Amino acid sequence: MSAPSGWDHPKQRADDPPRHERTNGLATAGFIVSLVGMVSGMVFAPLALPLLIIGIVLSAVSLQQCRLGIGTGRGLATAGLVMGIFGLALGVMLSAFFAGAHFGP
After folding, report:
1. Contact at 8 Å (CB) between 91 and 52?
2. Exposed/middle/buried for 76, CB within 10 Å: 0-12, 13-18, 19+?
3. Which band of pLDDT confidence, cut at 50, 70 and 90, is reported for residue 76?
4. 3-state SS track over the chain
5. What contacts 100, CB < 8 A, 6 or more positions away?
6. CA angle, 85 as apex, 82 and 87 as ends, to 5°?
7. Torsion of CA 25, 29, 30, 31, to 10 degrees
8. Could you give the maximum distance between any two Cα atoms of the chain, in Å?
9. Nearest Cα residue to 61 out of 97, 14, 28, 18
10. Highest mean pLDDT, choosing among 15-29, 52-66, 81-95
11. Where are the chain's structural domains?
12. Residue 97 to residue 85: CA distance in whole angstroms
């Protein structure tokens, strides 16, 4: 009798050293790029937009890979995605506000 799919790996015994899955590199990269984009938005705004978009893309791809079981890092990917979207929305709102204040009626 064969084991069901997904159960074909040997069970870990209590005296075995713990197995650690590697964190998905895209999750780490997406988090860091989104974080740098948020911080750079406060200092040099034109640099923030491309960094935030790259962070969103990396985090979204990593989140999809985590759902498929390719590595871990779902929390980092989610945090990178949230930071990227929040930073992008904040940047667009602030740009619209300052453009309206500068070019307003």
Report:
1. yes
2. buried
3. very high
4. CCCCCCCCCCCCCCCCCCCCCCECHHHHHHHHHHHHHHHHHHHCHHHHHHHHHHHHHHHHHHHHHHHCCCCECHHHHHHHHHHHHHHHHHHHHHHHHHHHHHHCC
5. none
6. 100
7. 110
8. 79
9. 28
10. 52-66
11. 25-103
12. 18
Residue type, 52: L
Q: Can you tell me which residue has the tokens 């995605």?
A: 81
| Residue 61 in tokens | 């791809």
Q: What is the pLDDT of residue 19?
A: 67
Of the candidates 85, 53, 80, the residue with the CA atom closest to the CA atom of residue 65: 80
CA of 82: how far to CAs of 9, 31, 40, 77, 90, in Å? 35, 9, 17, 9, 12
